Amino acid sequence: MVIDTLLEEALGGSAQALARLISMVEDGGPDGTAALRAMHPRAGRAYLIGVTGPPGAGKSTLVDAWTASLRRQGRTVGIVAVDPSSPFTGGALLGDRVRMQDHATDAGVFIRSMATRGHLGGLAPATADVAKILDAIGYDIIFIETVGTGQAEVDIVGAGDTVVIVLVPGLGDAVQTMKAGLMEIGDAFVVNKADHDDPDRTVAEITMMLQLNQDRGGWRPPVVKTVATSAQGTDEALAAIEAHRAYLTANDLLERRRKERRRAEIVRVVERRARDRALDLVRDSGRLDDLAERVHRGEMDPYAAADEILTPRMMLDHVGIAVRNLGDAARFYGAVFGLSMAERYELPDEGVRVAFLRSGGVDLELLEPLGEGGPLAKFLATHGPGLHHIAFRVPDIRRAMSAAAAAGCMLIEPAPRRGARGSPIAFLHPSAAGGVLVELVQG
Ligand SMILES: Nc1nc2c(ncn2[C@@H]2O[C@H](COP(=O)(O)OP(=O)(O)O)[C@@H](O)[C@H]2O)c(=O)[nH]1
Ligand SMILES: [Mg+2]
Question: Which CATH fold would you assign to the domain 43-251?
């Protein structure tokens, strides 16, 4: 399979294979999921550092300086940068590439720029997944750079083991940052562009805000001044990150943090699958056009239209089996499928005793005649035990009944009645339904 080959090549050090793998993951299709699945057991060794702050604060320049230092220590580095892609300029993607050129030929560094998907504050959702792939491939340190403007970004950098907030001198940004909720998640603060304005004042302001922010679990986020363009203070900032890592490790907090992140990961997978399922449901564009037309004409609202799409037009609800002895049959299905008897009741008017066995999917309704002469007793006398009826759940029982009547099917009763389980039910005569008695249940 293509994925296996790609994985093998990427693990063997092919940057090209790795880039293709990441594209698959970004696309979010089944191949990407397969790749992530295969890589999952290998991930968890890298240290993830989230870097965020206002645009232009110098995040990329800082990451670049840190990468150079880490490479000198012999550590490999993966970088995932999420940039707002301006429709006018093509965004900062090119800028990042140009700046990171020094590392372009270094096999120990892998840089991936991801575009935000259009809308303001929108983020390439696969960031954490891409980081995971880089982790699994074996990069020691992974930087996730995002523009800190809102909750979505908070979620993404929150995926880091250490979260670094980058600010520049001047109160405005710091206030904005606090509003965006970034203050609470910062494990270390960098005041970059210390060659400008009055950096010490900004350091003091941040320190004060941090003091107002109680309960950091014993950790005091350091605040470091840097000039990223000339690598001044950048090693001190890196040391602050390392100190946080050491703190987490020494206090058994790293594993706890990572375990908490698994919840977010599961939610992400559920979200992705739910979205895939949703796309599947609207794939029938003829049906979608039809619903759009009806909404447009004012015959229904968009919510009812969505309900029509989300509710299957027909779903097997239960299968009714005529038996001579309820207990024996129930024991059999219990022994084989582990079904338990959910309800048991007698309907003297209809001459049946009923047992419902719930399966979690399609239920079984076992029917035993109550005395002689009822319809079920007659059924048993002519057919013997066996399939008695199948019941379909439909969104609108009256609609289904009139469709059946229009198709020439005889209705056993003209209007729905309330079934023993509370929902409206109706029966269609077997003659038009392929020889099977069909029960309709409104779902
Ligand atoms: N004067 C000065 N300029 C810097 C500093 N750090 C970065 N820059 C410049 O600020 C601009 C934005 O930097 P960049 O790293 O792309 O910011 P990002 O948007 O936060 O990633 C670039 O032109 C950098 O060269 C600094 O410490 N001092
Ligand atoms: Mg940048």
Answer: Rossmann fold (3.40.50)
